Automatic annotation (TrEMBL):
Pfam families: Aminotran_5. The lineage of its organism: Bacteria, Pseudomonadati, Pseudomonadota, Gammaproteobacteria, Pseudomonadales. Residues 46-369 form the Aminotransferase class V domain. This is Aminotransferase class V-fold PLP-dependent enzyme. InterPro entries: Aminotrans_V_dom (IPR000192), PyrdxlP-dep_Trfase (IPR015424), PyrdxlP-dep_Trfase_major (IPR015421), PyrdxlP-dep_Trfase_small (IPR015422). Gene3D superfamilies: Aspartate Aminotransferase, domain 1, Type I PLP-dependent aspartate aminotransferase-like (Major domain).
Length: 393
């Protein structure tokens, strides 16, 4: 197998993959963290499945999809994750799955404490705060010091675990959506387990660009997207519950379409996007053909480093994401220290340099500009970005 680090620099090689995607003329998209593109072949397959289900309607769905195809697709997903099929259930997105896990977690009593940090996704924050109103628990919110390191991140959680002995549940984000900081999940989960604290992991941005093994990470509850770095259609995500912990999550609002021993009753029952689900086997096949998360992650990290290394020491620019390879991925963020309103610089990047980025706020380290290359991005794009940032500084 070729060295992914060396291949990440091969523009001609990655252009062969970029050519499989249709790209609208216009700004250079450096906001690929929102959702990913489908390849041309995936779009064709998706369209065929839309037409198939529209033609055959409930006849195909009742006779084939519900009885056979949905089972096979679930097995494809489980194989990708290297987990049992009974450990996963499809949702519309990571947020839906995480909300279901949080609201149906049954290990809390009034007076218990739950933990979140400033870098959590807002939907996760609101769901954890919902527990305070409806379960009588106390929400503990911590802020991470900036700049962060592996040691300071782990220390923040160890200190919280010692300071708040009634903690029973915590939210943890694998890749934070604001700054792109990658959390040391395995170390934090191990420390949490030592204190009897369960972890619900937000993996929305991780799947497809970071290699991981859920058993090795020590994660028993998680929610993921399939429309970011895997390349699936929108409206697809899933939850993971370790089989031995299924009883810790109640059926969703008394859901009865599946037996209590089936993870699928832990999410709301509804008519899913069947054509999108039917497209997933091809999506997984193409993901593997590109080299999977190892190859994608190496390429995206290489592109990230091109612009970060060029501006890291430039006066007036602060890169918010560390350079420790354990703590970054494609997503990284930057802040112009001379400007309070980062949105003004987002608009300048678009107007003056044709670069599309997005402002993010809400973390303790302050507002920033999130920059996310994708699989259609090139080294030239990164050099253009670096020069634009230097100009604006």
């Amino acid at each position: 197998m070729p060295d992914n680090t060396l291949r990440a620099r091969d523009e001609a090689f990655w252009q062969t993959f970029a050519d499989r995607y249709d790209v609208q003329p216009g700004p250079i998209n450096l906001e690929n963290g929102y959702f990913g593109r489908m390849s041309r072949t995936v779009i064709d397959e998706y369209q065929r499945n839309i037409e198939l289900i529209n033609r055959s309607n409930s006849v195909h769905v009742r006779q084939r999809f519900e009885q056979f195809e949905s089972v096979s697709i679930r097995e494809h997903l489980a194989d990708l994750l290297r987990v049992p099929a009974e450990a996963v259930a499809f949702t519309r997105c990571a947020s839906d799955g995480l909300q279901a896990l949080i609201r149906n977690y049954n290990g809390l009593q009034p007076g218990d404490q739950v933990l979140l940090c400033d870098l959590e996704y807002d939907t996760v924050k609101s769901a954890m705060r919902w527990l305070a109103r409806h379960r009588g628990v106390e929400v503990i919110e911590i802020e991470h010091v900036h700049p962060a390191s592996f040691e300071t991140l782990l220390a923040s959680y160890r200190e919280a675990f010692e300071q708040y002995p009634r903690l029973k549940l915590m939210a943890l984000t694998h890749v934070t959506h604001r700054t792109g900081l990658v959390m040391p999940v395995q170390a934090i989960a191990h420390a949490a387990r030592e204190h009897g604290i369960d972890v619900i992991l937000d993996g929305a941005h991780a799947l497809g660009q970071i290699e991981f093994d859920l058993d090795e990470l020590g994660i028993e509850f998680a929610g993921y997207n399939l429309h970011k770095w895997i390349g699936g259609p929108l409206t697809l995500g899933f939850i993971y519950i370790a089989p031995q912990r299924l009883a810790s999550i109640d059926p969703d609002m008394g859901e009865f379409h599946f037996p209590p021993t089936d993870i699928r009753c832990r999410t709301p029952y509804s008519t899913p996007n069947i054509p999108a689900l039917l497209t997933l086997p091809l999506v997984f096949e193409e993901h593997r053909a590109m080299g999977g998360a190892a190859a994608k992650g190496a390429r995206l990290n290489y592109l990230r480093n091109l612009w970060v290394n060029a501006v890291r020491k430039v006066p007036g620019i602060e890169v918010m994401t560390p350079d420790d390879p354990r703590l970054y991925c494609a997503i990284s963020s930057v802040r112009f220290t001379h400007e309070a309103d980062q949105q003004l610089l987002v608009e300048r990047l678009l107007k003056d340099y044709n670069l599309f980025t997005v402002a993010r706020s809400g973390s303790a380290c302050g507002p920033c500009i999130r920059i996310t290359p994708g699989l259609t991005s090139t080294a030239r794009d990164m050099r253009l970005l670096a020069q634009a940032l230097i100009d604006l500084s």
